[in-house]
Design a protein that fits this description.
The chain is 32% helix and 15% strand. It has a single domain, classed as Rossmann fold. By secondary structure, the chain is α/β, with parallel strands linked by helices. A five-stranded parallel sheet has the order 3-2-1-4-5. InterPro entries: Isochorismatase-like_dom (IPR000868), Isochorismatase-like_sf (IPR036380), NIC1 (IPR044717). This is Isochorismatase-like domain-containing protein. Belongs to the isochorismatase family.
């Protein structure tokens, strides 16, 4: 049934998935969404994989490859890091990515980013990376990153496809459409650079199940909706 819905959407909506080549002709920026231990490293937290996860592993590999390519060229990179205070919960999810713990740190394969001059790191305490970039003085680290680098195209990768990545992408599109992100034009999601976690039913009390296989089957639908904006 899900596949039939996806096929119907693909037929009816003016959306085309395609390959992408980035060159220096257009100022591009890379956004890494929450590629931290608590989502990606085995047994690193409540929402981390319990064993090796092919989907998450491939996402990390692709993200590292892109990050290397951007840093080699000194192109701008923005990395959001999910980081929560122990006493501030985010239902319906269990406690996760507690600030100042290893689960809130970048995965080992990306920790070198902390020493790169073209990289902006932003710890956030909410699902949406755009909202999580708002400072106490009202400024927004993400908006400043786009404008100070004169970014015209943003490439998003990370985890989770249907939660943090989707929210960050949608809010970015809304902000672009309202003129808050000039000169940004294109918002791009690299599907092979995205993954989601797996929470089977009855894993945690009062926590909604989040089966990876089902979410992954809806991935095309998610990106079709995003690309319509």
């Amino acid at each position: 049934m899900v596949q039939q819905i996806i096929e119907l959407i693909e037929e009816e909506l003016p959306v085309l998935q395609m390959s992408l080549v980035l060159t220096g002709d257009v100022k591009a920026g890379l956004v890494l969404v929450d590629i931290v231990n608590g989502f990606c490293t085995v047994s690193a937290g409540n929402l981390a994989p319990r064993q090796h996860d092919k989907q998450i592993s491939e996402m990390v590999d692709e993200s590292v490859r892109l990050a290397r390519a951007f840093c080699d060229r000194k192109w701008p990179v923005f990395a959001s890091l999910d980081s929560h205070h122990l006493d501030i919960h985010e239902p319906p999810h269990p406690p996760h990515r507690i600030a100042r713990t290893d689960e809130a740190k970048l995965v080992p394969a990306l920790q070198w980013l902390e020493n790169e001059t073209n990289v902006t790191l932003k710890r956030k305490d909410c699902i949406d990376g755009f909202l999580g970039s708002i400072e106490k003085d009202g400024s927004n680290v993400f908006i400043n990153w786009v404008q100070s680098n004169q970014i015209k195209a943003i490439l998003f990768v990370g985890i989770c496809t249907d939660i943090c990545v989707l929210d960050f992408v949608c809010t970015t599109l809304f902000a672009r459409n309202r003129g808050f992100l000039v000169p940004l034009e294109d918002v791009i999601v690299y599907s092979q650079g995205c993954a989601t976690f797996d929470i089977p039913a009855n894993t945690y009390k009062d926590v909604v199940a989040h089966p990876q296989v089902l979410q992954n089957s809806n991935e095309i639908f998610v990106w079709l909706v995003v690309l319509l904006f």
